[in-house]
Design brief:
19 strands, mainly beta
């Protein structure tokens, strides 16, 4: 299992609150500009959690289920050697042009678990990979819910059966990272949706790592700022307006 540590989401980001919202000092330099995550054992009180970004990215990402068959063929749960309650994220390729059409989901749910949408060839995209690392074994399922806000509109997600992962990993996965994805979101209990640049999720697990990938536009949305000459012109016009108003009143 790769080493994990809490780090700033990207250089230039400022942490506004522990396990709360993360905001960018300059939105044009950001990739993930906010997150709110809660979690806890199912049917028990929930607590605020964090988003743990692995930086620098690991050489290998091994995503598996914490379960195996014993010598008698019985399914047993292996204890998770390094559980964490935070949602884990890896920032993948940023602002790359797709060399071919890529199949994605417009949501993940019990109604939509296989690719049903396409990001066209030549689209400029950025990619993010998320998973959980639950306290596995005979304990109740642990659940995570919340939202992640990106600096650009979301174009699609990947989160179904592992057979679909190589399809997007080849184009948006990290070149120097070895991906071994042997588990997936469960359509019976996991939900991932998005609207514009905000992703919402509600997932739970006690034996798997529930991975999903988010692909956004590679062109961040930057609020327009008036140029200095425009600001100066507006100020002069306002000044003349006030002067003429005073003269008229005299």
């Amino acid at each position: 299992m790769q080493a994990e540590k809490k780090t700033p989401l990207l250089r230039g980001l400022q942490v506004a609150a522990v396990c709360g919202v993360v905001l960018a000092a300059n939105p044009s330099d950001a990739a993930i500009i906010g997150s709110r995550i809660q979690g806890g054992y199912v049917n028990q009180p929930q607590a605020n959690l964090g988003l743990k970004i692995i930086e620098p990215p690991p050489e290998g990402i091994i995503i598996r289920s914490f379960e195996r068959f014993d010598e008698n063929g019985n399914l047993i749960y292996d204890p998770n050697p390094d559980p964490t309650r935070d949602l884990i994220g890896i920032i993948e390729k940023q602002s790359v042009v797709l060399p071919r059409d890529v199949s994605v989901l417009d949501e993940f749910s019990d109604q939509t678990a296989r690719p049903n949408d396409t990001i066209p060839k030549d689209t400029l995209v950025s990619s993010y990979f998320f998973y959980v690392n639950p306290p596995a074994g005979d304990l109740p399922r642990f659940e995570w819910s919340g939202s992640i806000t990106f600096d650009a509109p979301i174009l699609g997600i990947v989160g179904g059966f592992s057979v679909y992962w190589p399809h997007t990993t080849r184009w948006v996965g990290l070149d120097d990272t070895n991906y071994q994805i042997r588990t997936a979101l469960d359509a019976k209990q996991d939900r991932v949706n998005w609207a514009n640049n905000v992703l919402t999720f509600d997932i739970s697990s006690n034996t798997g790592m529930e991975p999903f990938r988010v692909i956004t536009s590679g062109s961040p949305v930057v609020e327009s700022v008036p140029e200095p000459l425009t600001i100066l012109g507006s100020g002069i016009a306002l000044g003349f307006g006030m002067l003429f108003r005073k003269m008229k009143q005299q």
